[in-house]
Design a protein that fits this description.
Strand order of the largest sheet of chain A: 3-2-1-4-8-7
Distance between the termini of chain A: 11 Å
Oligomer: homodimer
CATH architecture of the largest domain in chain A: 2-Layer Sandwich
Largest sheet of chain A: 6 strands, mixed
Strand content of chain A: 15-25%
CATH topology of the largest domain in chain A: Nucleotidyltransferase, domain 5
Number of strands of chain A: 15
Shape of chain A: globular
Number of domains of chain A: 2
CATH class of the largest domain in chain A: Alpha Beta
Largest interface: A-B, 48 and 48 residues
CATH superfamily of the largest domain in chain A: 2-keto-3-deoxy-galactonokinase, substrate binding domain
Chain lengths: 312, 312
């Protein structure tokens, strides 16, 4: 029975749930993706939701599960600790929190906190992706992790030295859906990384970050006065916010001095590649976010469940 | 009958309705304030809402009414034109749009547009306040108009030379009410202009505008890691956004080179005064926004209805 799962790996966020059954060699035996994030799973019961998905994956009772993400936050299943940066990513497994649960051992990985008074910051879930990034051989440099709350992380030989979170994705969604700009950006079309309005938005934000909210309003004004197309308005809005993130990363992390890895999945990757190019941040190493979180969970699971592994 | 209204003046915005009955000398005979902005009044019918309020004010049929604000926008009663900046504020009255309506003449003042391809911008309502600012004797300099969409306007001898809109107030409300920051700023307490967290937020935005969205996320991180009080978080959020507006005004309008007038009403004025001080923009001339819009409407009404006035 080489196909018997050695562990279940779960990336459990606010709005999404992903689980993999893997064997002892790390081969993926099955995968589940569902909208059972914290918001949906909380009322149903985290333990019940987990078991439903693991049953569907054919993971037997007793096989341990390792979780990461917001499921370990104050609003999740249990509140797992934060490790304090600077911190080596190898420490994650050893500091996992056990969750009392039947019929299997369940652990959740800690997040990472930057406790400085001047620059407080937190991550939960990204640390596991970073473990995967290191497993892929990117051990020193800057990691750009686009998302609802984008992270820029300084790695030095597998240690998280420091990081900054930018609210890029959340602001984009808020402004797109529910602001004075909504009419001017109302389209279902995807943003093209080649749209000149996107690059223009990035460039303006890099050149004059102080004018961000004025540039945002100009998206509406351009639509009112010049009949600017909503596709172009949406690209400009996205460019402004991603460009401000680039400007912030340059201001905070000496981004020109280090190799950059871009960790993402889906259409956002092309936009960030274009923005990095506009910001003269060259050609980043591209890594797949989904693969990295799985590899990170796998690396931690091997450390954490080593004795169980060898017992099979 | 010295108390007979010469005209009705109406400032009609998206969420608010204010009307004054004034005599030929400009004396206020009565005032109405209601939540009958566009959103509420549209379904009821603009004409009907206007007449209800004017009846309550004792404004007889035949007495003309002059309107300003978003009631003259695409989503309002009629779409009034925009005058193109640079434009003298004396031109507003001559370019008012007549609204077909019984039982009185009704006009709405135009907005002002900046049609430049690079810096498109629009105002509707603020131009009438500016007419009041000029009537108060502030004819040359920068006018700071805090609000949902704050305006910074360059005046030269009563001419609007150019302006910029900042989405400061809208972003503040969105982030406060409906974002990852909401828990960290959940308080009913008013923001104190003396709160060091407010000045700190302003200072950070002035020094490093590119880090805006990172500083915003730090409001949450400071609450999670250091137990920062929500009052302090709210002050920091407000300071970050108002500080970015100050940085933008400095970047765009040579704000240090000109006298500054601060046009506002209510608690926001103290916050802007503090932020202007942190930005080294000295002591602005304070003008009351409510008084200015009334004075602007009055000045325009006198020009527009001159013949009717003299006929009384």
């Amino acid at each position: 029975m080489t196909a018997s799962p050695a562990f279940a790996l779960v990336d459990w966020g606010t709005t999404s749930f992903r689980a993999w059954a893997v064997d002892a060699a790390g081969q993926v035996l099955g995968e589940r993706r569902a909208a059972d994030g914290l918001v949906a799973a909380g009322p149903k019961g985290f333990g019940r939701v987990l078991e439903e998905h693991l049953a569907a994956l054919g993971v037997p009772a007793g096989t341990p599960a390792l979780l990461c993400g917001m499921v370990g936050s104050r609003t999740g299943w249990v509140e797992a600790s934060y490790l304090d940066a600077p911190v080596g990513l190898d420490d994650l497994a050893a500091r996992a929190t056990a969750i009392p649960h039947e019929p299997r051992p369940v652990f959740v990985l800690p997040g990472i906190a930057q406790r400085s008074d001047a620059e407080p910051d937190v991550m939960r879930g990204e640390e596991t992706q970073l473990l995967g990034v290191v497993a892929e051989g990117f051990r020193t440099g800057l990691v750009c992790m686009p998302g609802t709350h984008s992270k820029w992380v300084r790695l030095d030989e597998g240690t998280v030295e420091g990081f900054s979170t930018f609210m890029t994705g959340e602001l984009f969604q808020m402004l797109r859906s529910n602001s004075i700009l909504s009419q001017a950006v109302a389209t279902e079309a995807a943003i093209s990384a080649d749209d000149p309005a996107f690059a223009s938005g990035v460039r303006h934000a890099l050149d004059e970050p102080a004018l961000l909210t004025s540039r945002l309003f100009q998206v509406r004004a351009g639509w009112l006065l010049h009949g600017a197309a909503p596709e172009s308005g949406l690209a400009r809005l996205s460019g402004a916010l991603i460009g401000l993130e680039m400007a912030g990363a340059l201001a905070r992390h000496d981004a020109r001095e280090a190799p950059v890895a871009l960790l993402g999945s889906g259409p956002i990757v092309a936009l960030y590649e274009r923005a990095l190019a506009v910001a003269d941040l060259g050609s980043p190493r591209r890594l797949d976010a989904d693969a990295c979180v799985r590899h990170g969970l796998l690396a931690a699971a091997r450390l954490l469940f080593a004795s169980k592994d060898s017992g099979r």
